Amino acid sequence: MSDVTPLETLGEFGLIRRLQNTVTLRQPSTTLGIGDDAAIITPAPDNNMVVSTDLLVEGVHFDLTFAPLKHVGYKAVAVNVSDIAAMNALPTQIVVGLAIGARYSVEAIEELYEGMRLACEAYNVDLVGGDTTASRGGLTISITAMGQVPNGQAVRRSGAQPNDLICVTGDLGGAFMGLQVLEREKQAFLADPDMQPELGNYGYVVQRQLRPEARMDIVHELKDLGITPTSMIDISDGLASELLHLCAASGAGARIFSENLPIANPTLEAASEFNLDPIMCMLNGGEDYELLFTVPLSDYDKLKHHPDITIIGNMMVKSEGANLVTKAGQPVPLQAQGFTHF
Ligand code: ADP
Ligand code: MG
């Protein structure tokens, strides 16, 4: 970058003022945004407010060797919106806490905010406040998202009943394969800094990793179809781990079929090149941010031809446990391998 302004030249308040000028407010429930000691939010009558927070730490949740700051900003907002979506709610506001290491310039933080601004636009969310501090380490981003849902329509993890259909949106394993590709390119880059990254064939999986989307589109579509899921969760740690959460919270068992799990061709190709089992990538690869939900059997006709929702199995009584049924018809207990950062 040619123009690099050290953060000291603006100071904390100068930086906040600059960021404030890039923010647009769209939500009727935002009564007051950035600039006072606190934002004022006025929820619609007969609505519940849902609140969720996520902390993203450089070197743990994102790696700036390969993730552009604009993408980091977009993803930071998208993963928070995804939690709101998983409650069947509409996101309305976010607040952003930043701890900024000394090596960041004003332009770098503006890049980050540009990504957050784009995500706020995409999801129709207002950025209404935050906090800014220096950090002795890298960059830490804490985002708290708020959303609204009419009374009685929030969907929890706990409502799944035996025989309910288990549905998943989009396709799985892509973000995990994207991370494998990026890590490999990073090693090659560290060995030879003149090397140009070869991401050509991996555009899809890399995008799944760097710039995931929250499935707000599905929340709207389910509403239009007249479907209220009995339980729902977003897939941040991998399908197996999330399905076990639904089972535990609902006091139920589950059965999913390996042949039904949705995978995109580029993910399949990448897995084969890396000698990884595609089923494992789908079950245990994290960060796809698709929605996993259950619906009563009676909703089958409404969903069976949906292009972006796949029915992967059904809930069972608790004593059946939670199993993956292989191609050969063999049940294998699901394990929460997840994708642990520790
Ligand atoms: P205080 O000292 O009371 O915490 P600040 O000076 O930190 O106040 O914040 C002033 C205003 O700027 C507040 O409205 C706050 O929400 C907002 N703000 C601070 N940091 C950020 C940020 N990183 N992003 C968005 N808004 C911010
Ligand atoms: Mg403050």
Automatic annotation (TrEMBL):
General function of this protein: Catalyzes the ATP-dependent phosphorylation of thiamine-monophosphate (TMP) to form thiamine-pyrophosphate (TPP), the active form of vitamin B1.
Keyword Cell cycle: no
UniProt-listed Pfam families: AIRS
Organism whose genome encodes this protein: Hymenobacter crusticola
Protein name as catalogued: Thiamine-monophosphate kinase
Residues that coordinate or bind Mg(2+) 5: 237
Enzyme category, top tier: transferase
Binding site for ATP: 113, 130-131, 157, 236
Reaction(s) this enzyme catalyzes, per UniProt: thiamine phosphate + ATP = thiamine diphosphate + ADP
